[in-house]
Amino acid sequence: MSTTTTNRLESRYAGINLTGETHALSAWFVVTLRFMMGGMMLFAGLGKLTFFREDPFNATGYLVYGVDSASPVSGIYADIAANAVLLDIINVLIPSTQILIGLALIVGGFVRLAAFGGALQMLAFYLGGWEGEWLGFFDNTLVYMVLFLAIGAFAAGRFLGVDRYIEQINVGGQPLIERYPAIRYLLG
């Protein structure tokens, strides 16, 4: 195994230039991060399934009592909890998306879509727990959101993941990613 190969990262945004070189082991850490975050989401979702618990998962407790009153979404979350149809949707949506996000990240398929979904879920949890203090900037759910975004930005599904192979599926004589360039936002 070579550990001397480097890759150059460059970005220019808002007049700021960032450049640097990564170590060859960086790819292994990207895979590890993808796998760890995938496992976290998979087991969070599985833990909410009925056959792993005595009571069925119900988001009411979080939506009504777990949301800080200073949060900008406290009223919205309380309204969701008060609406039986929306609550039923949330009670299915949360565990099922956590399981799907976890599986996608573990196998490395549709990683950017999964990472975006994970980031959105973490943002929703962060906003629910927001107390309006600057220390909330270091809340673990916000950190997880940034980690999910990093997984997507690094196209982590191309490292020991099925996205690498999905992108190369031959469609009309071209690799899928070339024939449908917009799919880059889902894969990688």
Spell out the blueprint of helices and strands.
Elements: E1 7-13, E2 16-22, H1 26-46, H2 60-66, H3 74-82, H4 84-107, H5 111-129, H6 140-153, H7 163-166, E3 170-171, E4 174-175, H8 176-179
Antiparallel strand pairs: 1-2, 3-4
Helix pairs in contact: 1-4, 1-6, 4-5, 5-6
Question: What does this molecule look like?
Answer:
This protein has 188 residues and is mainly alpha-helical. It has one domain. 54% of the residues lie in helices and 10% in strands. Helix 1 (26-46) packs antiparallel against helix 4 (84-107). The radius of gyration is 19 Å and the shape is globular. The two termini are 24 Å apart. The mean pLDDT is 88.
* Terminus-to-terminus distance: 24 Å
Instruction: Report the portion of residues in β strands.
Output: 5-15%
One letter per element, helices H and strands E, the order comes to: EEHHHHHHHEEH
List the uncertain runs. Answer: none
Overall outline: globular
Sheet with most strands: strand arrangement:
1-2
Supply Rg: 19 Å
* Total beta strand runs: 4
Number of helices: 8
Q: Oligomeric state of the chains?
A: single chain
Derived structural class: mainly alpha
Mean pLDDT: 88
Helix content: 40-55%
What summary fits the major beta sheet?
2 strands, antiparallel
Structural domain count: 1
